[in-house]
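Tutorial handout. Part one gives the primary structure; part two gives the three-dimensional structure as tokens.
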Amino acid sequence: MAQNLFPVIDSPRIAREGEGFDKRYKKSFAWDLQKGDFARDGTNRVPVCNGIEAYQTWCEKTVTTERYCCLAYPDEIGTEMERAMKRPSQRSCESAIERTIKEALLVNPRTEYVRGFSFSWDGDAVLVEFLVKGIQYEEFRIRKKLGDGKNRGEDDGQQASF
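Part two.
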């Protein structure tokens, strides 16, 4: 009846980065980006969207979510647009916007690449367009208006028109 004075316990296996992520697109509830709430059908039910629609919605919401502002999200979720828009020149703003969008979307293992950025400025507002490709689907274009549209140093109350 020999017992060890010090019992042996197997240590848990440590997962490697990216190993535990599922790369399949999953169905989700439909989201209305304009309302910022779940979409509703005629019977006031929330419809279900397919995996690619859910992924596209995730991309749109991630780009418009400011990082560190919502305690419900981990620090990897969101962009740093406020910081990017405070850069001293349009060129440096564009570089920072591109970087923060790429970083935010590439957190998702379903994102293959983010590229093809183009910028259209109107005062302090910018319309940014770019392509996103998921690992199993064709690429799609996202367009986002950023900034307040006021000229630097002026406060005339007029918004940019894109």
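Part three, for discussion. The radius of gyration is 21 Å. Residues 151-162 have pLDDT under 50 and may be disordered.
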